[in-house]
Amino acid sequence: MTRAHKSSSRLTSLPRSARTSSRGNGGVKAQSLRAMNLALVFRYILADPGAVTRASVAATTGITRATVSRLVDELISAHLVTELDPSTDARRGRPAVRLTPREGYATALGLEVNVSYLAARIVDLSGQIVAEGVQEGDFSDSDPQQTMRALGELADRVKAQADAATEGDTLFLGTGLAVPGIVSAQAVILAPNLGWRDLPLHTLLAPLSHLGVVTVANEADLAAWAVACPQPGVPSGPPSFVYVSGEVGIGAGIIIDHALLPGSHGWAGEIGHISTDPAGPTCRCGATGCLEAYIGQRALVERAGLARGATNVDVVAAAQAGNAAARVALDEGGAALGRTLSAVINMLDIPLVVLGGSVADIGSELRERALPELRTRVLHSAGSPSEIRIAEHSASLATIGAAHRVLQHLVDDPMAWTARVERSQESA
């Protein structure tokens, strides 16, 4: 199993609105107050697993110790939280029982369709990857139903691995799907590099109907969510940033105060089609000078003069070996990225950029050329310098983010599950 990165400042990063005391809420119905407090206690356990205790939750939240103890017992009874062996502390005397989310129990499936691969990962509430699988291929201009059937078969294999690892003792919450394109509540409107257009979700998702409720979103948005919340329910990543994702296409996810900025229709972040030079190369979308026409993987390979099928890493290797065309392609690509990001940063006032996907593979090369553009073009660069980071293990971020968005429903409303457990126990 692979554990997601955890930040040392988890507790302080919880939203202020979540820190609700049980006192002074006379106008709130008892059931609603109980649900709010249960979610609050659950978040604090998730935020500091293996270290938090009933007493520390009570001290931090302001909820009485007796109430916290009852809520923790409810989470334990529902198999969402487990107790660890007591830790002794001579200064406190009595050993403290530490709390942690139960590993491998509450899980969600994250899926991704991309131009060069299909991916599936099952993630649990502790942030661990329980099982995963990747199927490489060329899915550009692919048949949607055939591709989704292949994805469903991959998902079945990964679920079987997870069931074997957990001996079937799991709470499977559903599935999230990452797509490299524009997604609405009803359809995949446009995934240009897959060749998909105006696909109703009920038709597209039919081969996945056995995987529970499937939530569909843009892959860059989901990857950005995974960076902002590297563990389900714990907003411990950078609070505000622009995540630039790339493969054949280039997109972005925008995070402000640990929340995704979707735009009016959920389509925000299409920076791959910002024109950096009207006289530049023609993009697949039909416009000229788009960022994607410079640093999209196929476009970059073509501009470097390499054979179709080469990768961004091959372009870097060629440039380092003295290939002049590859060097120019990287230099122009980095400058185009810098000009694009300058416009985005000037507009949004978010000076942190995180590079992921195939863009991260050449991130060091692009950053070297992009930063001078940012220093020249970003108006507040002197007072607040822009920063470009390269995401680690970014190939898995979209599927992790897709699974995390499903798990978030449980984090926000654990009572929906604990109430089911109570009813089941009563009927038994």
Give a description of the structure:
This protein has 14 helices and 16 strands. It has 428 residues and is α/β, with parallel strands linked by helices. Strands 1-6-5-4-7-11 form a 6-stranded mixed beta sheet. A 5-stranded mixed beta sheet has the order 14-13-12-15-16, sandwiched between helices. It has a 3-stranded antiparallel beta sheet with strand order 8-9-10. It is globular and about 70 Å long. Helices cover 40% and strands 19% of the residues. It has helices at 30-47, 54-61, 65-77, 144-166, 201-204, 219-228, 292-295, 297-303, 312-320, 324-348, 357-361, 363-377, 397-412, 415-427, and strands spanning 2-3, 81-83, 99-101, 106-113, 117-124, 128-136, 171-179, 182-183, 187-191, 196-200, 214-218, 241-246, 250-256, 259-260, 352-356, 387-390.
